[in-house]
Write the structure tokens for this entry.
Amino acid sequence: MPDFNATLTPEENKHNPFIMTGEGQARLFTTSLNDSPLPIHYEPAESPVGNILYPQATYNPISQRFYANHTVETDKERENYPYIMTTYRVVEHYQSGIMTRNMPWLNEAMPELFVELDEELAQTLNISNGDVVTIESKRLLKNGEQKGIVAKACVTKRLKPMMINGQKKHVVGMPFHWGYMGMSKGAVANDLAPSVGDPNTTIPEFKAFLCNVKKGGNIA
Amino acid sequence: MNKTMLIDTSKCVACRACQTACKQWNQLPAEQTTFSGSYENPPAFTPNTWTKIAFREHEENDELHWYFSKQGCMHCSDAACMTVCPTGAIFRTSDGTVSIDKKKCIGCNYCAANCPFEVIAFCRTTNMPDKCTFCEDRVANGLQPACASVCPTGAIEYGLRTKLLTAAYDRVSKLQAGGKANASVYGASEVGGTAMLYVLEDTPEYYGLPTNPQVPFTARIWGHLFKPVRVLILIAMAFGLWANRKESDEVQEAKESNTI
Ligand code: SF4
């Protein structure tokens, strides 16, 4: 990463700004990383479309895998999980929420796990604000039985359908702070997400994967 | 009105630190809420929720806005609640804000029913209204109101009205120059001017604020016509009761004489 060296003037720094390497220069080749150094484009491990840049390699071929048959890879399977899921945070809760979900004032402001849907998708699925919905992914398909997690629906203008490679795709999103213990309990959003690690850091691909959304379900 | 809070909605990030700080300082317990389709929670003002962030989505010309505004008692100069309160329990403090003296309150609910901003919550169990106190206790001790003291973005500023009004108009002209044509100052003249001043990026209704808040006409009639003569009305009532009592004595006597 190029940066300012605190001990040099900007003029001196200009020629060797890569402060993490001894010589201050960028390196195009390295022996210490699995995947590097120039950025290229891969689709997520689970993607609704192929990689138009590298049709032979949809996802990163050296990503770290832990389970066989873990992600959706065929078009036939994609039909079962038509929506793109992304997970994120809310300001009221921190990580798995084990501190913040035991704080009454924070639970009051953000009481339950929810899933955000665009208005068009909500209409197609006949889901209204506050309805209970079930979200499924391939990770919860066990021995031929499809399970899902439940959350409250949040129908919002903030999400819009996307045109991806000429196909209309819906993105749904949910926070991941809930769990089975605490003052405010809820399903674990990362039960849906794939365990696929980045080649260098093993950071999991929790931010983009495929899912299905259905109206109804039982909030435990 | 000398002390004011300027709420600059263009700086608010909806962290709800203000909402929580209010509960902490005023020792208001959390409510049991559910997720009903909006980030806004609790859904309404209650005796335990005096301020909260309103979340409103607004879409115009393919442009999406998510407007946040910290709402609560506006501390109006022409306060409908004060006008209608029959016992004078709602009064103006020396700082120009509006407070409730619960010892004088008789629980008639007139204030909550007439508030043009619908921010007074009336508790049916205790028969008492509740609302933001402008942190009288803090202000009297030289502190800022709890909400203003925690806002991380500087969206809530506390200070002298004259200074904050200038700041508000400055900010609005900057927003307008930046393309927010409908940006405005809210509360400068509404209901006589309110101690809560707002900088809005768009029309008040998109924030869930009334465009032209008014003291209800019936509140004026009650407040200005009947309230001043309430002593006379009370005397008339007392006389009426006394007169009826006399009558009933007569009836009683008649009955007694009949039975003998
Ligand atoms: S503390 Fe400030 S930024 Fe946070 S919600 Fe309140 S007004 Fe908005």
Residues 57 and 63 of chain B are 11 Å apart (CA to CA). The mean pLDDT of chain B is 91.
